[in-house]
Amino acid sequence: MSSSPMVFGVYAQRTSASKSVRLQVQLRTWFPVLACVAVLAVESTSYLGADHTSAPLRTVAETLFGYDACMHWDLMHHLIRKTGHFMGYGVFSLVCFRGFWIALQPPESRLLRQLRAHGLAILATFLVACADEFHQSFLPNRSGQLSDVLLDTCGAMALGLMLFAMMRAAESRKLAQGSHRRNPACAEAVALG
């Protein structure tokens, strides 16, 4: 019985250390997602509405492409903003994918883990886009639009699909290299071929 306080003391220290490590892992996993949400929240303010971004972006466009390029500025400005929506939320989805990829324990297969992480990332992107547009509907110079939510979600799906294809290709290449290493005849045939 005299050893039990020592045993419990050692166990308590390991538990607090493991809680600290788990907290650090969680922070490293989800901090990039929170940072992206913060950037999206700042971009969702009235200060970055179309009425405030047009003049600075037009100056940049005129500097880069000349005054003639800005003859159809309203259309160009609209396309720049919508491209920003598409790419911004696409990148947000990739950051969410990273978080879910780390957080999800490997299930039966790597493919299932990828599909779950991509699905959750797209869902998270959709929910944040909905919240963003809902917030913008209360601002005097912004408007909440369902079309922007759909555009944001399409950006998430497009970049997610690209990442999924790249991951599958890398995994196929890795498996092919692994099979060549295990089978010397195959490796020799590839070297000669």
* N→C terminal distance: 72 Å
Binned, the helix content reads over 70%
What's the count of strands? 0
**Poorly predicted ranges:** 3-14, 189-193
Q: Please indicate the count of domains.
A: 1
Strand content: under 5%
Number of helices: 6
Structural class: mainly alpha
Largest sheet: none
Instruction: Quote the average pLDDT.
Output: 84
- Encode the helix/strand succession as letters: HHHHHH
Characterize the quaternary organization of these chains.
single chain
Give a quick summary of the entry:
Helix 3 (73-103) packs across helix 4 and helix 5 crosses helix 6 (184-192). This protein is mainly alpha-helical. The protein has helices at 4-43, 50-65, 73-103, 110-136, 146-182, 184-192.
Fold and architecture overview:
With 193 residues, the protein is mainly alpha-helical. The protein has one domain (29-192). The chain is 83% helix and 0% strand. The protein has 6 helices and no strands. The chain has helices at 4-43, 50-65, 73-103, 110-136, 146-182, 184-192. Helix 2 crosses helix 3 (73-103), helix 4 (110-136) packs antiparallel against helix 5 (146-182) and helix 5 (146-182) packs across helix 6 (184-192). The longest helix has 40 residues, at 4-43. The protein is globular and about 65 Å long. The termini are far apart. The model is unreliable at 3-14 and 189-193 (pLDDT under 50).
Topology of this protein?
Elements: H1 4-43, H2 50-65, H3 73-103, H4 110-136, H5 146-182, H6 184-192
Helix pairs in contact: 1-3, 2-3, 3-4, 3-5, 4-5, 5-6
